[in-house]
Amino acid sequence: MAAVDSRERGQAIVVPGSGVRGDGRINKVLTALRMFLVHAVAEGAVPGWVVEQLYEVGDDRDLPLEARGESGGMRY
Question: Is the model's pTM score more than 0.90?
Answer without folding.
Answer: no
